[in-house]
Design brief:
Elements (H helix, E strand, L loop, with lengths): L1 E5 L5 H8 L3 E7 L2 H10 L4 E3 L9 H7 L3 E4 L20 H13 L3 E7 L6 H12 L2 E9 L10 E9 L7 H6 L8 H5 L7 E3 L10 E3 L37 H7 L12 H10 L3 H17 L3
Length: 300
Amino acid sequence: MKVIDLFAGCGGLSLGFQKSGYNILGAYDNWEAAVKVYRKNFTHPLYQYDLSQYQLYLEEFIHLNPDLIIGGPPCQDFSSAGKRNENLGRGNLTISFGKIITKVLPKIFVMENVERFNKTKIYQVTKKILNNAGYGITEKVLDASLCGVPQKRKRFFWIGIYQDDEGILIPYLERNLAQKPMTIRDYLGNKLGLQYYYRHPRSYQRRGIFSIDEPSPTVRGVNRPIPKTYQQHPGDAATVSSNIRHLTTKERSYLQTFPETFVWEGSKTDLEQMIGNAVPVKLAEYVAQTILDYVSDRPQ
């Protein structure tokens, strides 16, 4: 199937779908740092477009005639890590995504966002736009640790199929979920060369020391060394010591299931944010395969 990726970031969704055999016609994003990383890792084009001005590009999208449009509109305005302000402007990009879908009318679309996305007004507005255009939407929160990713990361997915039933993909999304969460050791073995590591918590009410024999907590855009003032938390997997370190930028990309060969170039701040915002590659693969399974079962 022919695909375009909107709000592509550094390419987690693109790479997962590409690995599953889809043909990525092109990708689109407006963040300079992510654009540079994406172009280092893919041979298909990425266009640096401001998709809030999507009307300027509709003719191009229609001409490409994709079977599938995928995308992850910026989610910071809905995130539990942010201030949850839907009026900051980025949430409107979700509506832009929906309007692009209704103009291009691909057979299928996939949109990814934060777990609580369906609690927002933007969700309600965009869903109405898509339903009115004839899309039956399956919505599902997927835990990445049950989809081949060594990380406890929950993400909301919309999969819309033109002129089909609401929720039709639920059994496909659920039937291949793992029975238990994937741990870092399950995925990487001893590649990190450590048993315990530090992940900077959102507040010191939460623990900061984890074991590789559990899934990683959600990879965020913040990555700091363990502070000298850190106080032992009762939930920590090990005692605070000089042997406990934070993961490197590259190691964090492994938790997002990017391959070792993936090229990361740019400032540390940009790369950490990029990796934290990315869709885990294996999670994207899981969704991509689900769609292939459905299409193969569908009567022609």
